[in-house]
Amino acid sequence: MIDIKLIREQTDIVKKGISKKKFDCDLDLVLQLDSKRRKIITEVEQIRAQQKSANSEMAKLPKGAPEFLQKVKELKELSNTFKSLNTDQLKIEEDWQNALLTIPNIPHESVPVGDSEDDNKEIRTWGDIDKLVSADAVPHYDIPWLKNLIDFDNGVKVTGAGFPFFKGDIARLVRGLIQFFLDEANTSGYIEIMPPVLVNADSATATGQLPDKEGQMYYVTNDELYLIPTAEVPVTNLYRDEIFKMDELPIKHCAYTPCFRREAGSYGKDVRGLNRLHQFDKVELVKWVHPESSFDEQDKMLAEIEGLLQKLALPYRVLLMCSGDIGFPHAKQYDVEVWAGGQKRWLEVSSCSNFTDFQARRANIRFRDENNKPRPVHTLNGSALAIPRVLAAIIENNFSSENGIQIPNELVAILGNEYIKML
RNA sequence: GGAGAGGUGGCUGAGCGGCUGAAAGCGCCUCCCUGCUAAGGAGGUAGGCCCAGCAAUGGGCCUCGAGGGUUCGAAUCCCUCCCUCUCCGCCA
User: Fold this and answer.
1) What's the CATH class of domain A4-101?
2) How many angstroms separate the CA of A289 from the C1' of B27?
């Protein structure tokens, strides 16, 4: 969430910031509830202070003495006043909190203003689409013999649409990609984590999935747990309620997890084959950094992500997302899209985001600054990378009807074979 | 899943209705002493919120797993939930 003091003291800046995003929220309501809240807190505290001092006077009197009983009577009245005021206070604070939770993060000044994905800014491309991509390229879902190795039909039977089985060399390739991405992250100094894939509502709220994306997560009603849509959720929450020493920052973690997304309402042409699954594998990078360095740290992370695609020789482009297209908790976001030569389109394989202090405030993750005072850290994360679309790009870009699919050099060392042959 | 025990500050652990935001010890920080180290001495060491102030800071309120309840008053009594430990059962 945004610092309430910032909302109070620099209302115009905050208002201007959130108006660049596309989320419905009512800043005036927050401010109105905030002043009601502060007013009632002052009243309640006055009563409380009276109660406390009368109480300690009474404690010195002999029990049952007339003066004692007199005090009890006096305190009874104070107590009743307190209780009714306190009820009002709790209600106001709850409303205030809920209103505040619906306010999105403010976009950074470097974020282009825009309404939709059409306003995103392409900041660079890498690789030669004609040179790096096979001339035989076809969409991966149009390669008949691959249906045995990427088995959607049995996925439908066993679970439902969007839950394929990977088999044989494709299963091995998926495993190889996970290992390659984790190894690269380790080399860059990210400590590896294997987190739980179910989280509670507190965790989902802290990272911003709740209340914003409630309907996008699978929910286990019996135990009131959510299946994670990304490793970001459990990994960021690892340090919920922690206070770091300044010299402990930056903290860097990587994690592989399956990710679960209901993708409600996103039917259409983009969902074919591997392009959009309900369950997919992803390696995620998460960093906790000093507020002053977070945008530099974000650029470093982006470079690490790009390095992965370069090593796999997959052409890609980097987009700087516009204010209307970045997420609820985001201050700045880059998307990295790989070229899928068969479909002849870009597929998003990574999102590299700076949440500034927005998540840290919700999750109560802080560090001690120069004056030893706790302050929220900045949190960042980035996919490195989402596997199925990388897989799609490898299949499509490296395909030849003669040799099958050529495995990128970096993965040959892990998997042993250079090609996935036609069955 | 069943039976019992328990959840207090960075840690160990006392308190079991008012004088306890919390004894004592450990750890950590500052200072003193000291040829160095060790030992010793003095003090300090949770977080949040509200008010005043440009700020340093000061005043107040809240927090003893979470949420309810009893009471003028709860870390302390009662209820519900969560978690940990021990034993039994079950099981990768």
Assistant:
1) mainly alpha
2) 27
